[in-house]
Amino acid sequence: MEITKPLGVGGIAKNINLNNRGGISFGNTLRADTVEITSNDRYTSETAIKNMIDNRVKSIVKDFNPELKLNMKELGELLQNHALQTQKTADGIIENLPFSLHNKVDKKAIDDAAYLHDLGKVLIPPEILNKEGKLNPEETKIMHTHSQLSYELLKNTNLGKKTLQLIRNHHQNAKKSGYPFVGNDFNADLNLQILSVADKYSALTEKRVYKDALSPKEALTVIYADIKDGKIHPLVFKALVNHVSENTELLKAV
Fold first, then answer.
1. Which of 48, 86, 104, 154 lies 20 to 30 Å (CA to CA) from residue 40?
2. What's the CATH number for 38-252?
3. Residue 247: what pLDDT?
């Protein structure tokens, strides 16, 4: 793998040359999701969420939110900002992938998952979501339930199986070192890698109460480490770099 200008010493080159020797496979060609598309906001109202809470959801939150309080204000802000930005970034990655990989992309599943992937945060206490300092181990464990909660809330909706798995596993990777737990048969396919990279880039470049926003170049440098760790495929990263270069003045001249 060659990068014209190393990330740590000068910047990002839009025309970086990455080959396909990273040892991360994308899995088999995927069939498109055929579920009829309607607005995903129908899953995000307070009434809809209350109706989706079942015994499995209650068992997950029983120790930190037994009263099932919904943080609708936080959810609204998340949907208007991070969710839409993750969608936009995922679409940009898809557009910049080599044509030979397009038949492995399930764009509808990725778009739906990008918008809904953090729905479970509506059940995470705001004092954890918005804590200014570093989370302690117990708080981290609670925060990590959000992806499973998103899946559990949405599992009986009209969303397709692929979308639901993307939502559940958006913090997983090809090394299986993320969360929630996955078995030996887990495959971080192209669709999941697109979603997880889009989510991470969006989160890194957003200002949060507990952190400042990183610049696009800084965020790309962080994500580049995931290639070296074998967590994402180089071609997904290259597509992200090209997308960011096309849409960020900082990188256009690099």
1. 104
2. 1.10.3210.10
3. 82
